[in-house]
Amino acid sequence: MHFKHLSPEDGLVALRERVRQFVDQACIPLESNDLSHDVAALDRVLASLRPQAQAAGLYLPQLPPSLGGLGLSWVERAVVLEEAGRSFLAPGAMNCAPPDQPNMISLMRHGTPGQKERYLLPLAQGKVRSCFAMTEPQPGAGSDPSMLKTFATRTSKGWSITGHKWFITGASGAGFAIVLAMTDDGPTQFIVETRNPGYQLLRTIDAMDPYAIGGHGELLLQDCCVGADAVLGEVGQGLRDAQVRLEPARLSHCIRFIGRARRALEIAQDYANQRSSFGAQLSDLQQIQAMVADSHMDLHASRLMTLDCASRMDAGQSVKTESAMTKIFVSEAVNRVADRAAQMMGALGMSADTVVSLIVRELRPFRIYDGASELHRATLGRRFLKANVSNKE
């Protein structure tokens, strides 16, 4: 692996330090248990932080300068997003948080000039939020998107969409949704404005992760009429087009959560260095030392996997296999790190007196979100076994 963008000469070290200062000085002081599951309050705090992120030159690391971004490569983003990920608030403040970040990538790759003007620019400017609506209640699509029950039919003026979606991150307060629906020609992505009379937010689901921007919504689309210009990408190619969004989204999640797990470990290490029990300091106990060592190994391996995947993406290579392996490993590794941190802190680690318990709650769903570990393992196993057979033929 050759990570050519990691040298100090290109200013990346200075940029990483600016992100760390922004996180420590501006974002962490505003974190509060009162923001947990309060969509409106979280939006207000993020709106107050975004001008500071812009002034510090930290806004939109994932977009090119033509759209107001920093134009960073994936390897460079990996460094920046890990630092931002130490805080619950920094990714949203820097406008590089899900679901808006991957939605921006989708609109940039597949959007028409009109769609970019109407949806991408306001999204990049932080004037509106968005969501991505694929998951459905049983018997609809979950880990298997081919089970789509939401259907779009052609009309004289465009399309009519009917379906039921749930666990749609960012739905509460979103200005528009990218909706995946089945058509006679196959799965297709549509841009649907949330003010559409056929679009209804039924509820915000009370999930365990406390700082999801816009929460996780349940949606109902009933004869939701959109124009022909609402199609994002190509009709019938929605799964292919969505994959362009999902692979970068998985990698970005991994990078941010490495930062979050690292923060939990830092807090636990400080606690172990200060706390005495049974006549000894916790940090002198071999069991604690082993937990700290294992956690640093998990973070180191996770970081190397994400950097390898990022380097391949910068080189224009397919990362279908590498991103799946990285997602499985990192989602499980950061959970191990956060769990050990909470364990080292005892009852304090179970409480809301520190952010460690919140980090545990936030990281646990990542083994399910963006594809459950079991699904990715099964897909990878089939792929490797098939490649082995093909290589012998």
Task: Summarize this structure briefly.
The chain is α+β, with helices and mostly antiparallel strands and 393 residues long. The protein is 49% helix and 16% strand.
Task: Write structural notes for this entry.
By secondary structure, the chain is of the alpha+beta class. The chain folds into 3 domains: 4-97, Acyl-CoA dehydrogenase/oxidase, N-terminal domain (Butyryl-Coa Dehydrogenase, subunit A, domain 1, Orthogonal Bundle); 130-232, Butyryl-CoA Dehydrogenase, subunit A, domain 2, CATH 2.40.110; 243-392, Up-down Bundle (Butyryl-CoA Dehydrogenase, subunit A, domain 3), CATH 1.20.140.10. It has 12 helices and 10 strands. A 4-stranded mixed beta sheet has the order 1-4-5-8, covered by helices on one side. Helix 5 packs antiparallel against helix 6, helix 7 (238-274) packs parallel to helix 9 and helix 9 (320-344) packs antiparallel against helix 12 (373-392). The chain is globular. The chain starts with 11 loop residues before the first helix and ends with a helix.
Structural classification:
alpha+beta
Q: What's the total helix number? A: 12
> How do the strands line up in the largest sheet?
1-4-5-8
CATH classification, class level of the largest domain = Mainly Alpha
The structural domain count equals 3
The description of the largest β-sheet is: 4 strands, mixed
Determine the strand fraction and express it as a percent band: 15-25%
> What is the straight-line distance between the termini?
30 Å
Enumerate the spans where pLDDT stays under 50 for 5 or more consecutive residues. 1-9
Q: List how many beta strands DSSP finds.
A: 10
CATH topology of the largest domain: Butyryl-CoA Dehydrogenase, subunit A, domain 3
Oligomer: single chain
